[in-house]
Amino acid sequence: MGKARIQKAEFEVLKQGLVLRQLDDTPSQELHAVMMQEADGAAVLAGTTQFPFLVFPCLFAERARAASEHFQKDLRKYWQAFGS
User: Which residues of the chain have pLDDT under 70?
Assistant: First the structure.
C-alpha cells in the first residue's frame, strides 16, 4: 500500500471516529444526516490544505456546531408557530 493510500485510510479513520462521537452527542436523529454531510464537506475543505489532519477536527466541530444551532433555531420557530 502506498503512502498516499495509507494517509487516506488514516484520515477516514479520524473522520469516522469524530463523526461517530458527534452522532453520540446528537440526540436528534433528524440531525444525524446533516452531521454526516457536514463531515464530508469539512473533509473536502481540509483536504485542500497542507495539514488536513489538523484542520479537519476544528472545521468539522465548527460546522457541526453551526448546523446544530441552525436546527435548534428552526425547531424553535416551528414550535412557536403553534404557540401563537
Answer: 1, 84
